[in-house]
Amino acid sequence: MSLGASSMCPTQKRTLSCLLAGRVGKRPKQENVQELQEAAVQLLNRHQNLSDLFLEVGSPNPCNLICKESSGQQKGASESPSPTIGGSLLGEFSGYLLHQVNELRRKAGELGVPVAALSVKMVVERLLDLTGHIKGDREQVLLNSTQRVQLSVLFQSTRELLSLEAFCSKLFWQEYWRDQKQPMLEVVYHLHTQNILSLEYMLESENGVRSWLMSELKALCGRTATEEGDGVPQQVLSTVVSVLVRAVFEETQDSTAAPCRRLSQVCRSVLDDMLSWVLDTLNCKPTLQSGETTAELWVQMFDASLCGVSVSPDALHRFFIHSLTHTLTYRPRLKVSDAIAMQREWSFAKTCRLLTSLFRKLAVIFKVEELLSHLQQVLETHEVNWQHVLSCLSTLLVYNPNTQPSLKELLSRLLSSAFEGYDLENMITAFLLARQGALEGPGVFPSYSEWFKMSFGGASSYHGKSKKSLVFLLKFLSDLVPFDPPQYLKVHILHPPYVAVKHRALLQEYVSLTKTRLADLKVSIEEMGLYEDISGAGTSVQPRCQARQDVEKAISLFGSTGRISATVMEASIFRRPYFLSRFLPALLTPRVLPVKPDARMNFIDSLKKAEKIPAAQHSSYIESCQRERQRQQDSKGVSVVNDDDNPQEVLQVQLQEHRALLTEGASDGEVSAQLARISHTLSIVFPERAEELVSQAVIQLHVVNMILRSFCQSLLDASRISPPNKQSPWASQFVNILLGHRQLLTALLHRMWDLLHNQGVSLSAAHVLGLAAFVVHLHASQTKCPKVQLCPPLLPGPVSVLEALTTALPCTTQTNMLFCVRFCVAAVCYGLCRSESLCDQPQQYNPCSLYKKLLYLIPRLMPDMRRLPIEASGESEYVGANKQGEEENCGLWKSVTDTNTTWRKSAWALWKHAPFCLLVKLPEYQFSFSEWLAAELRVQRSEDALSDPDRQEYQQWACQQLYLPSPVDKGGCAGDLKTACSHILNAVMDQKTVCAPTQENTDHRPSEAGTCLPDIFSRLQEIVYEMELTSRSQRTQDKGHFLLDLISHRCSVTSDLQSISSELCIQQTLHTWNRVILALPAVMLVTVKTGGGKRTLDCETLMEHINQYQRKGCSPAGLLPYHLTAHFLRAVLMASVSCDCASGEVNKAMSLISLQCPLLLVSAGHWWGRLSPVLVSLWHRLTDGQPLPQQLQVLADCHLWVCSSKDGVSCPVPSAPPLLLAACLHCVWEGQACGKGIRTSLEMLGQLTEQHSQLLVFLLFLCVTDLLTTFLTPQRVKGLQRAQELCKDILTVLVDSADWLLLFKTPCSEKGLYQPVAVVTSDEYTRLMPLAFYSLVPHLNSEILEKTVKAPGFLHTAVLCYSSLIKLFMDGQTPCPVTEHLTDQMDPSYILTRAQQVLLKTISLTSPTSLSPHQLNQLEALCVDLDPEVAAALVFHLSSSSLSPELDFL
Fold first, then answer.
1. Which of 438, 564, 845, 1391 counts the highest number of beta carbons within 10 A?
2. Inter-residue contact 921 to 864 (CB < 8 Å)
3. Angle at which helices 1190-1206 and 1142-1156 pack, to 10 degrees?
4. DSSP β-bridge partners for residue 1091
5. pLDDT tens digits, one per residue of 1020-1051
6. What confidence tens digit (pLDDT) does each residue in 885-904 have?
7. Structural contact between residues 1168 and 1201, judged by C-beta atoms closer than 8 angstroms
8. What is the pTM of this model?
């Protein structure tokens, strides 16, 4: 019998199962088993159709997985799938499967067919039975759950047949493919995953499998994820993709065989065709949305994690590279000219979301360098789809910040290659990639104008090597002109490439061509704004709008720098038509001029002084402003509202009706309608434009009071009926209509701030509750509220409405503390009761700023609350909607509204309220230690609600019990004393910075003298003392590092910007820090380290701190204050006692200080007269009267020698550092007038041995520092003459030495033995040393000057100082004291003029042999741009071998 034949069984009235069911009671005995088996064999012999046989012996249960469900059997049975095949040979008889297989073999032998063919026939028929009804309905691409379970069991039995060699997989596939013309992909997936038949075999076995697989994959991708069987499409696709990728990209030993090559080709074509289908779908714009949804599932398959287990990393790498290449080169229809014109439409924001997703997934396993390298390779070897290439680049730039530097390197390589081989391909590629990057904005890639200037704007640019390169560039740009958008043409004109003077004609040809093209496009280069974005990404702006933007930008820059920007100055010269016709009219728009000049007025005045505004135009502007002021004053007295229809009276009636509706329990619709009428009336009283206001300030105040009063009364009326959480949303609607009227909102906020800040004490409980609820609803509607700019600015920048009103609730005195706690208790109680559920956005009705004020005030004002931690009551979750929560809400609301209650009872109830306690678990509601310190430091001690002992007890509780043991994530210190100390130090420094007296904050912030700063200092000292004891017990000595690291961090944060404001911030920070550190034990500043069994001092951190930071804050420069110097030296002495040899450690420390910290050495020498008794007494106390250490004795000897020389007594010079001797001598001379005594001392010093000649040079340095101080400090201007005379006297003694010139060398390395001076004074003084040089040299007498000029190296130093002086003058860094005693000697311009004269004379007197050719060339190059006259003099006088004739100097 053939395999295709089928024999139908005779119809039977009763099935075998029914017959067996009637004989359940007659169970076969053990000896009848053999007979039962023989009967079963006979039954098999009589049935040729095995499927019908399985149906006959199957269970009548319709959920049987093998049997067919006939129309007449068990129609009412359940359709839930059964986990077994009941009653079938593959189900109930599976235990006898081996025996049945034997019978199948016997029957197959009788029929003359293989047993595998017989079993294949059975499985195919059952499989067709499961999926046969889907043949005509290909919309169903997946099995349902019942079919899936039945199929799983069928294939499980099939595997058992396969294991018994009773099934042939290949024969099965042939039969199934022949009978089922369009197999379901899920069936194939299960065949593959259950190891019945591999997908690889199926792909290479039949010719039509490829087209079938393509259609199945597309149909599966089109299936929505909401259908039954979620997750199955992804599993099927992932498995199929893994097989395809392995077959194509996995390298094996037999991959070159013919079958493998054929399979690889099939799989590769499937992958490529599917990717092409995705790309075609994205390009089909009419169906883009549906196409994206259809193709999205296939794009998700490009995920390394989906097939990373079954596919090797190398194969995945090759697959992604191949897919990326296919995407970039798919349908390269666009030419380069099209790409240039259409590139603007291919930015990241305009690219299809699915395409960017595809690029992101393909790029995830590669480094940026690999991707760009591959992109370059593709561009060089393939015709590309420019849209895909540029969209891919945009995706990389946006999602990977490392792309920008790599892209810049790629562009540099492309341009270098282009100009080396004059390659247009690389050239156009570089321009397209750079423009694409610029489309994504400056935050992602530099603008096109910046890139173009950077690449072609300098003489060293790519095209600057030869004329041929220049011609190549200009020819390339000229070829782009017909296709380039106008924004790029503007860049090429406004920022043209660098062209040598002799080739300017070539550039002019290109500029003429470009201007002609712009004229054809009707784009005017003159109408372009000064600060217009010409990168190509922005949209075009009308000239007038652009002019207004230019004005705002120019005013902003002027306000931040104090100078007219160079762009405006250049436009007034080179773009005069735009400047006069657009910029100035936008700037000089008539308005009411403010009483105090603002930034716009100052900017206009500066332009007027610079003669950039015509006088007639400026006069017309002033007159127009005066007319505008008069017009507004006249309009204020005009009333356009009739008394019979007064909107204020209408508003009052409407508010009363609204209150009546709430009392009567009207519907929400009626209340909303009434609020709409109120909103309309408010729009009449408060129109949108301020100039149309019909009411004056008094009337506005009356209306605002009416609104607030109505809200408070309505709230009380509504609360008598039901608690807040049971009320209608009338309050939110009421506040929202107010927010829609900005003029009203402004007046409302002013009135609210005034009530809370100035009239809080006089407000009744009803007013407090109503205003608190009003603030809560303002907070709930904060997304609709505009930002508020406080005036004066108590908070930086615009803030939210709630933050603005919170500033009206200070906690500085007893009076405002009591009002603040009343108000905050009412607001938080209302917010908690208003919330239906704490789990549902608890922040909506609970302002965190008011909540934090309660966390601060309640424990402070109510000591009993300190014993009840807030977390204790909030451990269990709370939901306000349950019965218990409603009762708690009602009790809390009653505690607030009851007229017989007090705020203390309400606060007590609130503190124990579970939702209140749960809020503190949210990070934004936690009141941190830093916030507590800031609040405490603002309290006025004289007006505090606590007495001094009570305040001490409260602060100790807060520091030691509340915040010190609390975890860091709850705002505490986690038991770390250093953390607590850091918080206190930062808070103190912040408070001192905030309290710095300025005109704006004097009236709004407490003065430092009356705050709790002394109390906080006491708490700091307590913690420091405990930390000292702890460190001793743990034998750790890192206190100095801890304190100095803290100030180093603050100064480093402050000094990010190199500007005058940054320097002032550092000085203020240091000033504050020094005041703080003087309150701490000095021993905390020096570390005692243990090593090798010895305990020694470690002053490195202290010296580094002084050198790096303290020298920047010295006033006067180069000298630490006395108290700070004494504190540092006390730290050394006190810490030395902990060492093995105190005296030896002090000597080592002082020796190290003299070498590495000259500022402290100079300060010690200067203040030794006052330091001596303090330090000697301290040393004797610490060491029980031991002799003073040697290095301190040297300080005493220096001071004694200086005093003796002052009295005219000649004594030997002590063996001490020359800088120390100079500091002591400078201190003694500081109070003396220049006269015979000082000159006598200088003559005595001049007779010293050469070893001590350094003393005079250091002394000159200290005097030069005094000279510069007179320039920078107006109070010291009168000392200019004395400082100059003293410096000249010292120079007279040093006239035969050239060492003093080393002081004016700019690099520190060139100062030689005098390098310590670089770390004595500040950087500003170092920059101004050229000014000091030319403030002294021109004033020397002729004889001394002639000797000075002949000193070796004088001319070299003079030219360097002159060039530095010119740069200081050009950068505006030369000081000009504002004083009535100003003379020519202090005028920087006069000094510069005299410097040029002196330098020219010096050049003429100098021998040509005094400078080497290298030095001469260096000086000439330095001066050629700054002062060509000096440069010419250098060449004329010093390049010749003959000496120049001497000229009279004066």
1. 438
2. no
3. 60
4. 1094
5. 989 988 887 877 666 555 555 778 888 888 77
6. 566 667 788 888 887 788 89
7. no
8. 0.56
